[in-house]
Design goal:
Blueprint: H1 2-21, E1 33-36, E2 44-49, E3 55-60, E4 67-74, E5 82-88, E6 94-100, E7 107-114, E8 122-128, E9 134-140, E10 156-157, E11 164-165, E12 173-174, E13 177-178, E14 186-188, E15 195-205, E16 208-217, E17 223-234, E18 239-247, E19 253-261, E20 268-280, E21 285-289, E22 296-301
Parallel strand pairs: 14-21
Antiparallel strand pairs: 1-2, 2-3, 4-5, 5-6, 7-8, 8-9, 10-11, 12-13, 15-16, 16-19, 17-18, 17-20, 20-21, 20-22
């Protein structure tokens, strides 16, 4: 009897359960949640859940590569190609590889190995500015002489190397003057043909040496000027200077005089007349060298010299 009563009590519960199962459940999922990010190399994964706890999973497609920079794998040279690779900016995968064309040589400046001269050839070359290899070599032609044409008294001379060739042009005197260089014609003569009674006088005045030379004319026809050259020496025989005097032969007796400051360390002097030149009206110059045996010379010695006033030549 008790069992019957229990069975009857459960009947409504079973009816309710059976009615509930008769209505089908529809899942309602939420937002996708990424559980594994997709990369350039692998798929990703995402999931979502229903309120009933049901889970749904879905793969995420592989991403595309992103071009990065070209990376030089092997540098090109002047003669050989190089290589470069395009790298993915995200995963560093090599996306592309290609050849890099050789750069070719770049010529530098000419380098002279041997300079050319007037008569011999030289040599020069060009190197590549990048790799240093010699690219060209050539001969430099001899430059040839650059002659100055010479002069009346000198043979033609090369302006570059100094070599001379040929002979002097020689003077072409017309009326006592060279038509090429305008130099007056010089003739060596005996002094006695023009002058006699050569004199040499000296004196001292206020710490200066005074000297004078005089002469008488034998023949002064056509003479427009007379030039005297006097060499001076100290007591040790050391040459000090040459004095040159020019004057006009305006009388039968000519003279020349000068003042010379004395050397403070010496009070002895020697003066020698060494040459006389006669300038002739036609442009000719007559030269009378005074040889040793006939030089006009004298020595001066002063004993009472105020050395505080002496000036050095």
């Amino acid at each position: 009897m008790k069992k019957l009563l229990l069975t009857l009590a459960l009947v409504p519960v079973l009816i309710l359960l059976l009615s509930a199962c008769a209505v089908k459940h529809v899942h309602e999922y939420g937002e996708w949640t990424v559980t594994k990010k997709a990369t350039c190399l692998e798929e990703g994964l995402q999931e979502r859940y229903c309120s009933c706890g049901e889970k749904q999973e879905q793969s995420i497609p592989v991403e595309d590569h992103t071009d990065g920079d070209w990376i030089i794998e092997k540098e090109p040279t002047c003669t050989e190609n190089g290589t470069r690779q395009l790298i993915c900016a995200k995963c560093s995968t090599v996306l592309k590889s290609e050849s890099v064309k050789s750069t070719g040589h770049i010529e530098g400046d000419w380098i002279t190995d041997k300079s050319a001269t007037c008569t011999t050839a030289g040599k020069r070359h060009i190197n590549c500015t990048k790799c240093g290899i010699e690219l060209k070599e050539e001969t430099i032609d001899a430059t040839g002489h650059d002659w100055d044409g010479g002069s009346c008294e000198a043979a033609s001379k090369c302006r570059k190397c100094g070599r001379t060739t040929g002979t002097k042009l020689g003077h072409n005197f017309v009326n006592g003057r060279c038509t090429r260089c305008n130099k007056s014609q010089t003739k060596n003569i005996d002094m006695s043909a023009r002058l006699t009674k050569r004199l040499f006088i000296s004196g001292y005045y206020d710490h200066y040496l005074y000297y004078s030379t005089g002469f008488n004319w034998v023949d002064k026809s056509n003479v427009t000027a007379v030039i005297l050259y006097v060499d001076l020496y100290n007591s040790n025989g050391a040459y000090r200077k040459t004095l040159r005097y020019v004057y006009s032969p305006d009388s039968d007796t000519g003279s020349i005089s000068a003042l010379l400051r004395l050397d403070g360390a010496d009070n002895k002097w020697k003066a020698e007349l060494v040459k006389i030149e006669f300038v002739i009206s036609d442009g000719t110059t007559e030269v009378a060298n005074v040889y040793y045996s006939e030089k006009l010379s004298t020595s001066f010695e002063f004993t009472n010299v105020d050395r505080s006033k002496i000036l050095t030549p």
